[in-house]
Each structure stands twice: as C-alpha cells, then as structure tokens.
Automatic annotation (TrEMBL):
Superkingdom of source: Eukaryota
InterPro entries in the record: CoaB-like_sf, DNA/pantothenate-metab_flavo_C
Stated family: Belongs to the PPC synthetase family.
Gene Ontology MF terms: catalytic activity
SUPFAM superfamilies: CoaB-like
Protein's name according to its UniProt entry: DNA/pantothenate metabolism flavoprotein C-terminal domain-containing protein
Disordered: annotated segments: 306-327
PANTHER family reported in the protein's UniProt record: CORNICHON-RELATED (PTHR12290)
Gene Ontology biological process terms in this record: coenzyme A biosynthetic process
Domain named DNA/pantothenate metabolism flavoprotein C-terminal: residues: 198-290
Biased composition (Polar residues): 306-315
Length: 392
C-alpha cells in the first residue's frame, strides 16, 4: 500500500480525496473474501434443495454489525452497533412459520437457538447439575451431568425447535465479519435466491456500515501512534438496496430496517428509502425502544402485500408455542396511519409491546417483538404471493 494515498492519516496533515463508489465500481475494485466460493456453494445447495419444494418459502435473514478494518493486517476496526438479537430471534420465528432460513450473521453475534444460553444471558454451565451415584460393582463414583430440572422446562421447547430445524435441514448459517464480506455475500446470495421468485424474502436486519476504507487506501500494518492524532476519511459504501431490488432479485419480497436515534427522523427516512429503492417494506426502530416498538412503513398501493386486514389484527394470546401465554395485557398492533410524502401515499403500522418492563433480562419468558414482526411479515408475504397469481 502507498502510505501517501492513505485515508488513515496518523500525522493529521494529508487531506485525502474520497471516491464515490457506484455498486459496479465497488465490486470491480474490492476483492471478494477468500472463502466466498465455499460459502456460496453451501447456499446454492440449500436453495436448490428448497427450490424443488414448491410450497416452501425461503427467507434470508441478515444479522449483526459489519466491521470496517483500518489496517489490512487488522488490529483495529470500526463497528456498527448490533448484538444480533433481532436477526437471531426472527430466524427462530420464521422457522416456526415453516420457512427455510438462510441466516447471514456477523461472526460471534447471537444465533438462533443458542441465543437462549449465551454467556451473558444464561451461562451454559449454570443450566447443568452433577448427579452422583455409587456403582454397585465397584466403589467408584459414576458422576453424570444433567440439565437442572428448573432449566429443563424452559430448554425443552428450544431444543425441540432446534432439532426440528436440524432434521429438516431448514436452517443454514453463514458468517461474515467485514463490510466487504457482507456486501459480496449479499450480492451472491440474492443472485442464488433469484430463481425462487416471489417465494424468497429478504429480511435485512444487519447493521451495515455507511462508510468504509477501500483497499488501496488502507494501511497495511498496524497504524503507529507516535505521530499524534489520527484522522480518518472514509468513502461511502454504495447503496446496494437499489441493485438488490432492481437487478439481483427483482421478484423477492424485500424488507429493510432503518435504525435512528432521533425518533423524528424515523418515518421520513423510512419513506425516503422506500421511494428511492422501490422495495416492499421498511421497518423503523429507534435505538432505545427497539425491543418494544417498531414501525412498518410501506406504500399504500395495492399488491405490495399491504391489506386493510392488517389494520385490525390484535395478536392472539397463547397461540401454539407462543410466548404470549400468561401476559396480562396482549401487545397491541396499532391502527395504521396513512399519509403522504414525496407525492406517494404511505402507511405506517406500529407494533408495540406496551406492557413490558424495559430492562427485563429474562429472554426466555418475555414476549418478543420479533414474534409479532414475523407474524405480520408472513401474512404480507402470503398476500404478495397471492397477488402475483392474479396478475397475468
Ligand atoms: O441486533 P440488535 O437486536 O441488537 O439490533 C437490531 C438492529 C437495531 C440493528 C436492527 O433492528 C436494525 O435496525 N438494523 C438496521 C440498522 C441500520 O439502519 O443499518
């Protein structure tokens, strides 16, 4: 690497020029990750298998944050906030709704099923007990490990759902780390899923960096601190939603997420994204309220999966293996609000868990907003598929 061209300026004296990358120039100039082909073969085999089951719907769930390395031999990187809860939890609910799930996740972020006993939430060893029994034929102790009865009740449905997904082969987990890994994988997966047509859904919950350091501007070795302050100038990540919607997988049902910290920006920015990229739905969430409320923003025209039926639905209590059991006041799905921006009519639908206490750490008993999100999406996706049958 040519250090004078670096956008990482440890001497704080070299202003560097930034480039506006188009999607095309990005993929021409940034190398694919080394293990891309291996991952794509696994994704291809998974999609081929479910393609032949004509009733099966397939969802790509992206999850976790992307890193932006500052050095090729990476010691330091910038990261996007995300624990992977939204993606991992939603993946479980998609599986329970009969979907085949490609779970594209940041390495070491939360995963479906194992999230229930992550080291911070429910440390694995805390679930276990030792049972000692004296062997009749010898004096030796035969110690056995069992799941403690108080945990077994909670673990059982998780284990059953996990085994069902394993037996059916309906969950494929593929990891990424950097923004470059993520972009390459998203492009390739969407191409692989394109033949599924409207049976494919894209649930883009990963927190994706808007800025990156192109290869030719990245320091090769660890940036040294001897020169004082560090200035960074990063290039903009191309907006890949546009080619995703228009070229890579034009028939898929595409759901993007919008995270904001200023609640005032949430709806205008979600509408702007819909208008710019032309996909089906944006789910808006505010950082601190994201576990308790989200807003669905969509165009109110017929045929995008929006239906007046969705305006009156109240989630059922205690359905199936739902964790809504035992909740005094059911979560509410607010009435839609339709309004106009940029010359188009948009509909906003709020999903709220009004009755939960923020900060409740017990992830196994609480109602999870992802259950409501997924249930709504499954209904919209079904209408979207149905609408295509009516269109000649
Ligand atoms: O992973 P998590 O549950 O901690 O957070 C989920 C989320 C806020 C990253 C997700 O809901 C989201 O909004 N993703 C898109 C973020 C973005 O605007 O890039």
């Amino acid at each position: 690497m040519n250090s004078s061209a670096s956008s990482v300026d440890a001497t704080n004296s070299v202003p560097s020029t930034s480039t506006a990358f188009s999607t095309e120039s990005y993929f021409q100039s940034q190398k694919p990750p080394p293990n891309l082909e291996d991952k794509c073969s696994r994704i291809q085999a998974f999609v081929d298998r479910w393609f032949n089951v004509s009733t099966k719907r397939v969802v790509l769930v992206t999850s976790g944050g992307t890193t932006v390395p500052l050095e090729s031999n990476t010691v330091r990187f910038l990261d996007n906030f995300s624990a992977g809860t939204r993606g991992a939890t939603s993946a479980e609910y998609f599986l329970s709704q009969g979907y085949a799930v490609i779970f594209l996740h940041r390495i070491h972020s939360l995963r479906p099923f194992s999230r229930h006993y992550s080291h911070s939430l429910n440390p694995f060893l805390d679930l276990l007990s030792i049972v000692s029994s004296q062997s009749a034929s010898s004096d030796s102790n035969r110690d056995q490990i069992i799941v403690s009865p108080e945990h077994a009740t909670r673990l059982l449905p998780v284990l059953r759902a996990y085994n069902a997904a394993q037996d059916a082969g309906s969950l494929l987990q593929i990891d990424f780390q950097t923004i470059n890994d993520y972009l390459w994988l998203l492009k390739r997966v969407s191409g692989i899923m394109a033949p599924l047509g409207r049976r494919g859904m894209f649930y883009l919950a990963a927190a994706v960096s808007d800025f990156f350091l192109p290869e030719d501007k990245m320091a090769e070795h660890k940036i040294q601190s001897g020169h004082g302050t560090l200035s960074l100038e990063m290039d903009q990540v191309p907006k890949v939603l546009r080619p995703l919607v228009q070229e890579w997988t034009p028939e898929g049902y595409i759901v993007s997420f919008k995270l904001e910290t200023d609640p005032e920006l949430l709806i205008p920015k979600a509408r702007a994204a819909l208008s710019r990229y032309g996909h089906q739905l944006v789910i808006g969430n505010e950082l601190h309220r994201r576990k308790y409320e989200v807003v669905f923003v969509e165009r109110a025209d017929y045929g995008n999966g929006v239906s007046s039926a969705s305006t009156t639905t109240t989630p059922r209590k205690g359905a199936g293996d739902s964790r809504l059991k035992g909740v005094e006041t059911p979560p509410v799905l607010n009435a839609d609000v339709a309004s106009k921006q940029l010359g188009e009519i948009y509909r906003e639908t709020w999903l709220r868990l009004d009755d939960l206490v923020p900060g409740d750490q017990d992830g196994m008993d609480e109602v999870e907003i992802e259950e409501l999100i997924v249930r709504e999406l499954v209904a919209r996706h079904a209408r979207w598929l149905e609408a295509s049958k009516k269109t000649p």
